[in-house]
Please model this.
Amino acid sequence: MRVLVVEDEKRLAENVARGLRDGAGYAVDHAADGDDAIFLAGSVAYDLIILDLMLPKRSGLDVVKTLRAKGSITPVLILTAKDDRDSVVTLLNAGADDYVTKPFDLGELLARAKAVIRRGKGQSAPVLRVDDLEVDTARRSVRRAGRELSLTPMEYRVLEYLVHRQGVVVPQTELLEHLYDYNWEKFSNVIEVYISGLRRKIDDGHATHLIQTLRGHGYVLRSDDAGKRI
Model:
């Protein structure tokens, strides 16, 4: 997953970004003002925007209104020092999906971020299932037919994204855009390496092969075409 953190306080932005990377395995980009937030949100397909309410150039509320007016459906989690009823109602009516009141516990922020991302992708429970595959997004653990699998951090991130998009063909370019931030030099063949590793760990020894390749199109996680790799 790829998250945009919009926060002008440098230390807080760094702490939030570090927590998202270390605690959830997310790729994180940063914007320090409202104008940069709108530019980046219009350039990258983020899975979540964590947005401070008080920003230079444009307020967080103005950013939300602008993004929604442009048709953006990216989930937005607001960081705010205001917790009175009228302020909360205004934020939610403007298009925010949830909010956290400052000062906040980083663990709570991570839990809310994961929940907002799940809801944005049509999921509610933290454990996502495809056939007999279970991905626990809270614990970042994976089971197939009841047996826990040991994945590398990047293998887990690829799988988590695919399970959120289960049944949908996901191109390599989409995976790259959602798994890495601007600071990483992207090479498409790295995705093939992770997919190969996931297939060995998830599909080998099972009649149903869940990870399938559509040549020239991308990858899909689904339970049909049992025992057949495309």
In short: Residues 226-230 have pLDDT under 50 and may be disordered. The two ends are 26 Å apart (CA to CA). The chain has two domains: 2-120, 127-221. The first helix runs from residue 10 to 24.
